[in-house]
Amino acid sequence: MGPGSKSVLTIEGLRVEFDSPHGRVVAVRDAGLSIRPGEIVGLIGESGSGKTLTCRSVIRLVPWPGQISAGEIEFDGRDVLGMTAKELRDLRAHDVGMIYQDPFSSLNPVFRIGDQVAETLRVNLGMGRTEGRTRALELLRDVGIPDPERRALSYPHEFSGGMRQRVMIALATASQPRLLLADEPTTALDVTTQAQILALLMRLREERDIAVLLVSHDFGVIAQVCDRVAVMYGGHIVESGPIAGLYNDAQHPYTRALLDSVPQLESAGRVTRKSVIPGTPPEPTESLTGCVFKPRCRHAQASCDLVSMALEPVSPGHVTACPVRPFAAAEGGQAKRAGAEA
Amino acid sequence: MSAVDALGQQPPPVAETVEPRRRASGLRALPLQAKIGAGILAVLFLAGVLAPLIAPYGQNELNFAHVFNSPSPSHLMGTDGAGRDVFSRTLYALRLDLAIVVLVTFVPLPIGVLIGAMAGYFGGAFDAIISRITDTMIAFPFVVLVIAVISIVGPGVKGVLIGVPIVAWALYARLARSEMLVLREQPFMLATTALGYSRRRTILRHAVPNLMRSSLIYSTLDMVVNLLLLAGLAYLGLGAQPPNAELGSIIADGQSTLLTAWWVATLPGLVVVLFGVGAGLLGDGLSDGQLRGRL
Fold it and tell me: CA-nearest residue of chain B to A158?
């Protein structure tokens, strides 16, 4: 939210609810986020924290029976939640691309790779058959498919996971979108492939100025590529800020616990698993008063029952929902995570 | 985070040069039994289509000099009580029956698949209504319905042509619907929406090719059922009207002389059996191929 540059995407007060047999379930509460052009923003959280729903809300692809019940989503000055079906399709076709976790089933098994990419070009950009085919080969080459002329004739099952994810990226970015929603794009891939896909995302950002919303549960992935990061827990965004600020000076106990739970490879063969967050995330059916993280928080106090989960500034661009600030006074920026080791 | 090291530098050249598996195109990719089945059906269909060219006699050509001749080189399937050549009559009967079978199988198929696919995709009230209708259709005694139609439009192939499609789409609809329920949850279906494709394109271009297979496999069975129905109705005299031949009516003619002139009923009967075997082998082979193709 730096001054001067206009956001390509702004989410404010997003609320996603589900009707379930046990009553209304609120999966995302009052989430806010903004992405500037060419920026990679991470959204991190545990399973069920609402990160995928937040991501899908951007193109209104919340799975049934979920629905967006409040909030504002603005893409490039356009109100996404107020769009007609036609406008929404146009948004999905031209402005926002999406890739997701499972590259093994995200391509249609009965069509050749090249035809699938060419179809997007024909349908969404109105290209002719020949033009579409030529451009599809260029796109496949651009995302790092070797020998695209030959591989375009292959079917998805003949591709590895990493290759399929590359094809998905080619598909999602074929119509030059301004924003790419990447929902755990590397979760199903091994570490080397993961690094290649992340490098590809960064290259696309450089070359085409595509903004990326990268959803992940892995701080390692987020730390590699993101400029800013938002941490989600129990449907709330509990902390967000520039990646360096958050990494070195996390203010929310949950962010810190997440950082501490990343295993560190210290020297040959020695892995320290620092800590595991005790307990389980809240059930979305539970109605909690005060801080959602309180039951699992080692710094919980009586006053936590009165916390509103509103984000308060820590430093420019860095906000947290924890008013207790257990780390603010006790430790400096350097001794950041030493305390959690005990 | 060993992956962090890979940052910054260009990704290593991707070492994936797996040869795309050699794909035998079309029929060659099928298992042997499917090929045999397809071969049998091809011969039968060809015989039907070419009946006027290859039949040695006319279908109603009488020859009272050669009544109840047993099979011989000049009458491959012998002759019947009116001296008609059973082989020629069988060819003409095949021609008529296969034409009807193809019509009443492959006209309802796309209609059923489409209705089922839509029901599965959209769900909700539309699905509930379609599902109840298909349940009713499937539960309905099929032969009785066809006979009821025949009682309205009169005997002849018209009854089958109208009666069978009224019901036959329902099974395809149910098949397609259940496949669509699975397919709908597949990420690539979500991808079509995320790419801004219309629902029409999503269903017709992306879902239907994926769910056609089970319907096509079922259609081989359905053809046999329809041929048997046709033969059964003709046997009862509700099919093509004499003197024109249908497999069922030839068999019915020969039935009274089964002990003295076995060939009149038996040999056309074997043609029906042959069709069933061919279609069965094809369907079986196709579904085996499907299992292997999916893995």
Answer: B20
Residue among A59, A123, A221 whose CB faces B194 most closely: A59
Question: A162: number of CA atoms within 13 Å, CB side?
Answer: 21
Determine, yes or no, domain membership for A222.
yes
Span A94-126, pLDDT tens digits = 999 999 888 788 899 889 999 999 999 999 999
* CB atoms A192 and B196 under 8 Å: no
Residue A152 lies in a domain: no
ipTM of the shown complex: 0.81
Task: Select the residue of A105, A160, A265 nearest B186 (Cβ to Cβ).
Answer: A105
Contacts with A83 (C-beta within 8 Å, 6 or more apart), sequence order: A60, A91
Global model pTM greater than 0.90 = no
- For residues A259 and A239, what is the distance between their CA atoms, to the nearest angstrom? 13
Contact A192 B206 (CB under 8 A): no
CATH homologous superfamily of B77-294: MetI-like (1.10.3720.10)
The reported pLDDT for the residue numbered A171 is 92
Q: Which domain holds residue A186?
A: 9-104+177-341
pLDDT digits (tens, 9 = 90+) for B117-144: 999 999 999 999 999 999 998 888 888 8
The enclosing domain of A212 has a CATH number of 3.40.50.300
Tell me if A151 is assigned to some domain.
no
Cα-flanking dihedrals φ and ψ of residue B182, to 5°? -75, -45
The pLDDT value recorded for residue A310 is: 85
Q: What mean pLDDT, rounded, does chain B reach? A: 84
Name the burial class of residue B53, with classes exposed (0-12), middle (13-18) and buried (19+) by CB atoms within 10 angstroms of its CB: exposed
Partner A contacted by B124 (CB < 8 A): no
Taking only the tens place, the pLDDT of each residue in B251-285 is: 888 888 888 888 888 898 999 999 999 999 998 88
Strands A40-44 and A78-79: unpaired
Enumerate the domain spans of chain B. 77-294
Q: What is the DSSP string of B49-79?
A: HTHHHH-SS-TT---TTSTTPPS-SSSTT-B
> Domain total for chain A?
1
- The answer to whether position A14 is within a domain reads yes
